Amino acid sequence: MTAFLRERADSLTEQMDRPDCDPARLRRSYARFPVINFLLARWGRNFERRIRPLLSASTAATLLDIGCGGGDVVRRLAGRAAREGLRLEVTGADPDARAHAFATSRKAPDGVSYRRALSSDLVAEGGRFDVVISNHVLHHLSAAELAAVLADSERLARHLVLHNDLRRSRLAYLLFLAGFWPLGPGSYIHTDGLASIRRSYTPSELRKIVPPGWQVERNGPWHLLLVYRPPGAGSA
User: For residue 11, with 0-12 CB atoms within 10 Å meaning exposed, 13-18 middle and 19 or more buried, which class applies?
Assistant: First the structure.
């Protein structure tokens, strides 16, 4: 692995995380995330293999997206369920007012709602969801924040948790550097995407820090999937 990718660059700060970042560039970044997630994040496959078996046409299941950002993943999952005649109520939660404002400005399928909230806020409210997910959130968190989000996820989920994040590798970095620069101008997509890869984990790193009961799995060539099934929930 290239020298600067051998260790996780956890001290890097992504521009989108700065409170004083340019709001126009931030909005363009949120608007372009659906392309990135459609091409790389494999939520269609995970819906088919892991989430769909928990859904039915008669009883509504619930899903929470922690750190939903602009909300494209929740809109995609809700739309997929609706097209297949399955009942799914989806909540996207994000503490950032800018993300919440962007998400609520976009048209969404029926059954989608947004909360400006942390996962700990939902735990304090006694919230429970059949499925809890996140997308590209884990690498943003400090060690203490990561432990807290995983603990919250265990309390919030009835059946399944799926935390999808980037996998740090030389190939992933070079692919993003060469292939996704067209999405960069006027946004933070390219610079922050490269920083995200440098901040992300390798499989062995993530396995060393997750609590018992969590599984680290490959999610295609560029991502890791952190999976948790509460005791007694069965498999999907």
Answer: exposed
